[in-house]
Task: structure prediction
Amino acid sequence: MAQYLVTYTDGSEQHIPADAVFCDVDYPQYVFHDDDHNTVALAPSAGVLSIVRMPEPATVKAVTG
Result:
């Protein structure tokens, strides 16, 4: 599952594990989903400075021989 870094205007940060995020236009919030489209987190849109999807760690493979 991917990680999102949410930065707020007050300087605080929050790491949210999710596969997708969208802004709910009916409510002032961001909705974070997993692969099965289940809601895993909500973030109020007021006060959000940025939402950044963090790069996934590289897969390390063992070299033999």
User: Anything to note?
Assistant: The CA atoms of residues 19 and 34 lie 5 Å apart.
